[in-house]
Design brief:
Blueprint: E1 4-9, H1 15-25, E2 29-32, H2 42-50, E3 57-63, H3 70-83, E4 88-92, H4 97-100, H5 109-123, E5 128-130, E6 133-135, E7 153-156, H6 160-169, E8 172-175, E9 190-194, H7 208-223, H8 234-244, H9 251-255, H10 273-279, H11 285-297, E10 302-305, H12 312-323
Parallel strand pairs: 1-2, 1-10, 2-3, 3-4, 4-7, 7-8, 8-9, 9-10
Antiparallel strand pairs: 5-6
Helix pairs in contact: 1-2, 1-12, 2-3, 3-5, 5-6, 7-10, 11-12
């Protein structure tokens, strides 16, 4: 299989060790989310991971133009590149929880494009205009930081506007199959997120381990306000009644409370076998490998697998075996 296999985590204090394990198992990429009201700091997490790894590429997926000033992002990337030279990637997008948890909707694609262009210029040691000022990086050799530095910029895109931005200012497209495979490009490679747990022999979808490991992404599909792949299920109707009873001023705080890391007590009864089947790619090792082969046949260049639940080493190892990674042979 030529498909490149990476992994992605909601960053926690344990994530650096999980990224080190991923490297030993043969994963080529290791990314962390950026949502500061929900997870640990991504830059500190990757800095610690850089000191524990030597091969795996490390990245943040994804940042928005609004949470972090472009100079702050450039500095963080230059620092990581000094710690892990040639192994750093960045994904920029319009935002989901990084925006919603601030009580805002997704950002404008024009802002994503401008941010990516300014960031690329700063990392190339160019002066750029931002917010009416001329900016540039001026690192002394004593800092240990070097510009220019070559850091691929990925764009998180799920439709034609995002793809257009990616083709103008990006190097790779990052998307999610639950949004369809509309984010295609004849110019750039496309990576997708994939979420599942690999079943043990004879294991049922109703097993508590399966509900724990597949539940967070299944719940995420409920968070998509009827736009997810489970909007036709009764679980969505039940969830909608529950969430709409919350004060609209606070609803975003409760909707995303355990985003992609756990499930809330409100969500737990809704994590049914049917929801898991519809929302995730959970199945046997053969089923998961078949899904990877389908993605490759569709022209996908790589995947970032999101292990979830209370035993992330087990999830990483099981998926690595299903994908045939070198560290499991």
């Amino acid at each position: 299989m030529a498909l490149e296999i990476g992994c992605i985590f909601p960053p926690t204090v344990d994530t650096p060790e999980h990224l080190a394990l991923a490297e030993r198992l043969g994963y080529a990429y290791g990314a962390v989310f950026d949502s500061p009201t929900l997870f640990a700091d991504p830059w500190l997490t990757l800095g610690r991971a850089a000191e524990r790894t030597s091969r795996i590429r490390l990245g943040v997926c994804c940042i928005t133009p609004y949470l972090r000033h472009v100079v702050a992002t450039a500095s963080a990337l230059a620092t990581l590149d000094a710690l892990a030279p040639g192994r750093i990637d960045l994904v920029i997008g319009a935002g989901f929880t990084g925006q919603h948890m601030l009580g805002r909707g997704p950002g404008r694609w024009a802002d994503v494009e401008a941010y990516a262009g300014a960031l690329r210029g700063l990392l190339a040691d160019e002066e750029v205009e931002w917010d009416g000022a001329v900016l540039g990086l001026r690192y002394s050799p004593r800092t240990g930081l070097n510009v220019p530095c070559q850091i691929p910029i990925w764009i998180a895109a799920h439709g034609p506007k995002g793809v257009g931005v990616a083709e103008r200012v990006g190097d790779v497209i990052m998307t999610d199959p639950s949004h369809g495979l509309g984010a295609r490009s004849s110019v750039l490679p496309v990576f997708v997120n994939i979420f599942c747990t690999v079943l043990e022999e004879g294991e049922e979808l109703s097993a508590e381990r399966v509900r724990d490991a597949a539940g967070p992404y299944a719940a995420f599909q409920l968070h998509l306000a009827g736009e997810g792949v489970v909007s036709h299920l009764p679980e969505w109707a039940d969830y909608r009644r529950e969430i709409e009873a919350i004060d609209p001023r606070r609803r975003h705080l409760e909707t995303h409370r355990m985003h992609l890391i756990d499930v809330t007590e409100r969500e737990r009864p809704l994590i049914t076998p049917e929801l898991i089947t519809q929302a995730t790619h959970t199945g046997t090792a053969a089923h998961v490998r078949g899904r990877l082969e389908e993605l490759e046949a569709d022209g996908v260049s790589g995947v970032l697998y999101g292990p979830q639940g209370g035993d992330l080493p087990r999830e990483l190892e099981a998926f690595a075996r299903a994908a045939g990674l070198s560290g499991t042979r």
